[in-house]
Amino acid sequence: MRTIERDSGAGSARAERAAAPGFHPVLIGLGLMLVAFNLRPALSSIGPLLPGIRAGTGLSGALAGALVTLPVLCLGVFGRLAPVLVRRIGPDAGVLVGLVVLALGLVLRGLGGLPLLFLGSVVAAAAIGIVGVILPGIVKRDFPDRAGLMTGLYTALLCLGAAAGAGFTVPLRQGLGLGWEGALMLWAAPALVAAAAWLPFARARPIPNAAAAQPGGGLWRDPLAWQVTAFMGLQSSLAYIVFGWLPAALVDRGFDIVAAGLVASVSALAQGVLALLVPTLAARRPDQRPWVILVIALPLVGFTGLLVGPIALAWGFALLLGLGLGGCFGLALTLIVLRAGDPRAAAELSAMAQGVGYCVAALGPFLVGVVHEVSGGWGLPAALYAGLCLAAAGFGLMAARDRTVRI
Q: Could you give the CA distance from residue 366 to residue 362 in angstroms, rounded to a whole number?
């Protein structure tokens, strides 16, 4: 994270001029945290309801895998549109538009029926992909001297939002007497709250020159850039497999649906611990390979243990899983910054790693759905997950060496 934080005085001055007058940094930070919280419930709330959706609609395992996969694919595909939107209306207005579209997608998927469920999921995920690409630039602009801290907080709030989606969706459905449609629609409310909170910033800030957001062609020929991208994609796949399939797997193993959602929520909540700590600690040394081994080993043990290990150890496995996934995500963002020699390279590497990486990540949940339906159990999905962990470790060890990309 040190690369971000060592901005020049001129860069800091430009950042200060870009910020809207009259807004205290604390208010901007709170707005960012509200936005960040809403970037995961749309994805993590599907898993706890998946058994009920399949029972009520006859959704096959392959289509259930597609329902989990499509949103992840949209993060990568539509995230590439973020620079275009920023150049047209500015980053703050882009975030506001994204939040409104996110709320629209969440409402659509709760109107009933499989077509609207899939359409709403795609719309919501497209908005998340766009906002997720824009936010790091806003953090760097408004907090040039505290970018590392704000990135850690932003990542932790993402994990908190994921935990809320996984843990609260089923209790809210039961407490309010809703079907799965209404339970999914509920998450539009916090998205609208975040949009209302962000509205003053969107109205007050000018449109900056976003030419620096253009992707650089040189990265596509750089092996290191591809190693960083592969690590980002594979570790994201590990997370989205968990979001999509952990509750269903736990129900199959004897948990009731509420307990399964709580286990998933505890796992998601634990992500915030290492998501906050790993970026700070890993950036203190030029070589991050020991961190790669740690953050990959934890989800490898945790998720395979939940799928095929002793049920009595489920809560411990869930804790290990959450700590590891949070550390993976934090380390992936850190590697993007550390492997870039300057802010422009960091922006271009981030666009490449997220755009391509999330498309790679989308394959994981789909493959797990297919393998589970073919095998009828969770042994083969556990083996597939272990294989993805080993692949992520291989690319991560290459990406974690003390080098920088060439653009």
A: 7
Count of structural domains, the chain: 1
Q: Measured between alpha carbons, how far is 28 from 197 in angstroms, rounded to an integer?
A: 10
Q: Is 252 exposed, middle or buried (CB count within 10 Å of its CB: 0-12, 13-18, 19+)? A: middle
Residue among 137, 165, 115 nearest 267 (CA): 165
Mean pLDDT, the chain, integer: 84
Residue 407, in any domain of the structure: no
Residue 23 lies in a domain: yes
If you write DSSP's letter for every residue of 321-345 in order, what string do you get? HHHHHHHHHHHHHHHHHHT-SSHHH
Quote the domain boundaries for residue 34: 2-399
Per-residue pLDDT reduced to its tens digit, 306-360: 999 999 999 999 999 999 999 999 899 888 878 877 656 666 777 788 888 888 8
Determine contact, residues 75/128, Cβ cutoff 8 Å: yes
pLDDT of 218-237, one tens digit each? 788 899 999 999 999 999 99
- CA dist 284 and 1 (Å) reads 9
pTM, to two decimals: 0.76
Residues of the chain above pLDDT 90, percent: 38
CATH number for the domain spanning 201: value is 1.20.1250.20
